[in-house]
Amino acid sequence: MKKDYEPILEGSANRDETEHIRSSWTDRWSAFSALPNAASIAKREEYRLMAPYLAQLPRGARMFDGGCGLGEWTVYLTQLGYDVVGFDLSAPTIARLKAQLPDHRFEVGDIRATSFADASFDAYFSWGTFEHFELGMEACVREAYRILKPGGLLFASVPFQNLRHVFRDLGPLHTWDEHYERKAGYGRELRFYQWRFTSPEFRRELELRGFRVQDLRPIGRRHGVNRFLQHEGRWLARIPFGAAAARRILTPILPSVLVAHMLWAAAEKRPPR
């Protein structure tokens, strides 16, 4: 696993991790003047992968949206007939969702320690959330296990330590860490942002906490190609239409293990040992 860091913004140095995450995502979500179109979820790669599993659940199955953000997944799956709870650490975001979407259920809380009873949900999904705790994802996964029913399904995604990152990280620090200068070092203080996982590491974290992984694969190849061009292919920007042409050419042919942005997993809750 690899750590990513971000600069500490003015006035936020004394925030503990939970408050920092809450404040950062509140700021991010508040920048959206309108809520996303929930119908767009049907086109998402995550949904296409989880749809065959959802088809096995009964209508009205209870689902938990861990780190629901602006709520589009909660809305879409509720419209499909599931009983979904959108759950997020950001109280202002949840207040906004409750005001604008009164027919849907949203609650404030920490996914590492919810107030739900054991075995409350048939399925749990969480996209790009488990990686933001510096102590690791164990507390997130253990709580997911606790609130899922026996045989319940967990769907989750985390950042992928793809081969581009692996090879990049072997180079000198100043060649890939934008915050580090070879002579001056770090010019400002940084704090933890997220973990990146290889496929075996992500599988191990889930299997160690009582889940049987049924599918695990890299996703987000197009986004990963954009990252590749932004960092390793910056010279293309100097060629008219170079980056756009490269994106069209490279996205279908570069292997996901090299450039994919995230890892996606589907797992089943095993009985306790």
Please explain how this structure is put together.
The protein is of the alpha/beta class and 273 residues long. It has one domain: Rossmann fold (3-Layer(aba) Sandwich), CATH 3.40.50.150. Helix content is 37%, strand content 25%. The chain is built from eleven helices and eleven strands. The strands form three sheets. Strands 4-3-2-5-6-11-10 form a seven-stranded mixed beta sheet, sandwiched between helices. Helix 9 crosses helix 10. It is globular. The two termini are 27 Å apart. The model has no long low-confidence stretch (mean pLDDT 93).
What characteristics describe this protein?
273 residues, alpha/beta, Rossmann fold, seven-stranded mixed sheet, 11 helices, globular
**How many β strands by DSSP?**
11
From the 3D structure, determine the CATH topology: Rossmann fold
Helix content: 25-40%
Uncertain segments: none
**What characterizes the major β-sheet?**
7 strands, mixed
The number of distinct helices, counting runs of at least 4 residues, comes to 11
- Terminal Cα span: 27 Å
Q: Give the strand order, joined by hyphens, for the main sheet.
A: 4-3-2-5-6-11-10
The topology string of helices and strands comes to EHHEHEHEEHEHHEEEHEHHHE
Mean pLDDT: 93
Structural class: alpha/beta
**Number of structural units classed as domains:** 1
Instruction: Tell me the strand percentage band.
Output: 15-25%
Task: Report the CATH architecture.
Answer: 3-Layer(aba) Sandwich
